[in-house]
Specification:
Blueprint: H1 4-13, E1 15-23, H2 29-39, H3 45-57, H4 73-78, E2 85-90, E3 94-100, H5 108-115, E4 120-126, H6 133-144, E5 149-155, H7 164-180, E6 185-190, H8 214-220, E7 234-235, E8 238-240, E9 252-256, E10 261-263, E11 267-271, E12 275-284, E13 287-289, E14 291-293, E15 297-302, E16 313-316, E17 323-333, E18 339-340, E19 344-349, E20 352-366, E21 371-374, E22 378-379, E23 384-396, E24 408-412, E25 419-425
Parallel strand pairs: 1-3, 1-4, 4-5, 5-6
Antiparallel strand pairs: 2-3, 7-16, 8-9, 9-15, 10-14, 11-12, 11-16, 12-13, 12-15, 17-23, 17-25, 18-22, 19-20, 19-24, 20-21, 20-23, 24-25
């Protein structure tokens, strides 16, 4: 039996994978998640007993594993997922943070929330229905958010007699669509979440399939958390100025390194002012170090006494992002109130928040066929479109394709602080992936 100490040692040496599930209503997302948790022995006894009790109250003989993730009362009553349900579990090979997202069109914004930090998306398809509009919608959202790995889980194979041609046709259609959006890696797996086929254990009913189970793929998919090769970026969160007898002249700039590496002696630029200096020191957990990297939280000390405040961005002098007041981006509108041309908003980018105005909404994207609806005038909840925003102050903004951290932003209602829109600067979709190079594209993604 594994002791708590041994388990802690195992977890400290395993990697972390953040992934999200998506699919149409009744495709079986919550059942798949419940099956993953149950068959990987990640469900506590009292949780399983509560699910069994709730299932009996609904007249079901077997426990409904979907109840492990559908936590809201309305979700359990309707048998659907409404909110994003986060679950944490681990196997000896890897730790997982899972976001189970809703399937209804009106909850597309919830998928954007769940997939925004995901390195992998599991898109479910009902084998009886094939690729439907919501399937294409979720594939497009994953592509917009630059999720590097997508798994197509063709569910309910037991209801189509585990027929290989059914799976092959769905996999071919989805793969062609997702590849056209620039998704670099697509893996198709035939499953039955209800029966457990190819979820954790290989299926005895599909000997024609020789690929991995869902859990095996999740445990082995290559995931890089190495941000040291990315453009170095340090958003300043707080200025430390103790002015004590012990530290009379100390001035440090605290924050979390968003990407890349910073070294003592390196020439840096402070944006948006454009002033340059040299890294005189780096403080980490009370000690001085010569080098620091993402995602460490550190305090940088500069050689020159220049004006630096919260919201400024420190970057290498020879690799600084462009500064602009005109932001062109793809956005997903998440608020119930519409976003309109001429609307005054706040734009939050890393630790910087500035006043802005929506200058133009050139188009709204129709995700079922990727057509552009020109000049819609406004975006309503769950709409995805292109916007042009003019900010009152300059921003040091990367393209989202280069960095998911410093290329993203939020538009906020200045009246009540409500989040209106999630934005991704730059082009909408990546260039279509070359089939023979798809497996080698991980280096293009920034995490």
């Amino acid at each position: 039996m594994t002791t708590p100490t041994q388990l802690a040692d195992q977890l400290s040496t395993t990697t972390l994978l953040r992934f999200a599930t998506a699919g149409s209503v009744d495709d079986g997302k919550s059942t798949l998640v419940g099956r993953l948790l149950h068959d990987s022995k990640s469900v506590l006894t009292d949780q399983l007993e509560a699910v069994e009790h709730a299932s009996r109250n609904r007249g079901q003989e077997a426990p409904d594993l979907a109840l492990l993730t559908d936590g809201l009362r309305a979700e359990r009553e309707q048998g659907i997922t409404i909110d994003v349900a986060y679950r944490y579990f681990a196997t000896p090979r890897r730790r997982f943070i899972l976001a189970d997202t809703p399937g209804h069109v009106q909850y597309t914004r919830n998928m954007v929330t769940g997939a925004s930090t995901a390195e992998l998306a599991v898109v479910l398809v009902d084998a009886r229905n094939g690729v439907v509009e919501q399937t294409r919608r979720h594939a497009a959202v994953a592509a917009l958010l630059r999720v590097p790995h997508v798994v197509l889980a063709v569910n309910k194979m037991d209801l189509v007699d585990y027929a290989e041609p059914v799976f092959a046709a769905i996999a071919e259609e989805f793969t062609a669509y997702a590849a056209s959006l620039g998704v670099p890696e697509i893996t198709a797996i035939p499953i039955s979440a209800l029966a457990g086929d190819n979820v954790v254990e290989p299926s005895a009913h599909m000997d024609w399939y020789g690929g991995p189970t869902v859990l095996e793929h999740l445990e082995t998919v290559p995931v890089s958390h190495d941000l040291t090769g990315c453009h170095a970026r340090f958003p300043v969160q707080y200025v430390i100025r103790p002015q004590t007898a012990e530290h009379p002249d100390y001035r440090g700039y605290a924050g979390q390194i968003a990407a890349g590496v910073f070294r003592v002696g390196e020439s840096v630029t402070v944006l948006p002012s454009g002033r340059t200096s040299t890294v005189a020191g780096i403080d980490l957990l009370g000690d001085s170090v010569d080098i620091a990297w993402a995602p460490q939280s550190v305090t940088l000390r500069l050689a020159d006494d220049i004006d630096v405040s919260r919201g400024d961005l420190i970057a290498p002098a020879d690799d600084a992002p462009a500064v602009t007041q005109d932001v062109e981006a793809t956005v997903c509108h998440v608020a119930d109130q519409p976003l309109t041309v001429g609307q005054r908003v706040l734009l939050k980018h890393t630790t910087r928040t500035v006043k802005a105005i929506v200058k133009d909404i050139p188009s709204r994207l129709t995700l079922d066929d990727l057509s552009q609806h020109p000049a819609p005038g406004r975006l309503v909840a769950n709409d995805i479109g292109r916007v042009v925003v003019r900010t009152a102050e300059p921003l040091a903004l990367d393209a989202y394709a280069d960095s998911r951290r410093t290329g993203s932003f939020l538009l906020i209602d200045p009246a009540d602080g409500t989040t209106l829109t999630a934005g991704m600067a730059g082009a909408s979709f990546a260039a279509a992936a070359e089939p023979e190079a798809a497996a080698d594209d991980d280096a293009e993604w920034d995490f």
